[in-house]
Amino acid sequence: MSTCYVHHDVDAVGTCVGCGKFICENCNTEIKGKNYCKSCIDELFEENKKKIEKLEDHVKVNQPMVFMNAGGGGGASSSSSSSSSSSSNNGGMLGAHYTKSKVVAGLLGILLGGIGAHKFYLGRWGWGIIYLLFCWTYIPLVLGLIEGILYLVSNDDDFARKYDKGYRRMAG
Ligand SMILES: [Zn+2]
Ligand SMILES: [Zn+2]
């Protein structure tokens, strides 16, 4: 006759479904018709506790991330000053609200891309400064030209979604 793995002098009444070891009446805990030894129950509780903790962490970590993504991840204070008199770009017929014109951004990129003018216009000050610092290499000039053309050929919605922080798509 097999004996309990904890109490070696007591006869086992069954085996634990968690670890498969023999357990006595004293060590046995029945959950939903299944036998568990004490250490397996502890483990089950620990596991559940960890799962709950993990879930809580997940929620805590994810919520601010959503907000950060919505902000464009620029880091710098979002420019409220740059929303000048560009209300003429408000495409009422399209049911969308634009605060940046892709034509202006495109022309700035093509004409003044070497000093990052299009980046400044789009509120990307960090990039604008980088372009400005490296203007003597002529690389920003080429990048600005390419970006300007890309702005001009992209469709309004795609451009706004990528570059316009004030862009709002109207419902309906
Ligand atoms: Zn067990
Ligand atoms: Zn026992």
TrEMBL record:
The cellular component terms of Gene Ontology attached to this UniProt record, alphabetical and capped at eight, are: membrane
Chain segments annotated as transmembrane = 103-122, 128-153
Provide the protein's localization. Answer: Membrane
What membrane topology does the annotation report for this chain?
A: Multi-pass membrane protein
Output the Pfam families linked to this UniProt entry: TM2
Sorted alphabetically, the keyword list is: Membrane, Transmembrane, Transmembrane helix
- Quote the protein name from its UniProt record: TM2 domain-containing membrane protein YozV
Q: Which organism is it from?
A: Bacillus benzoevorans
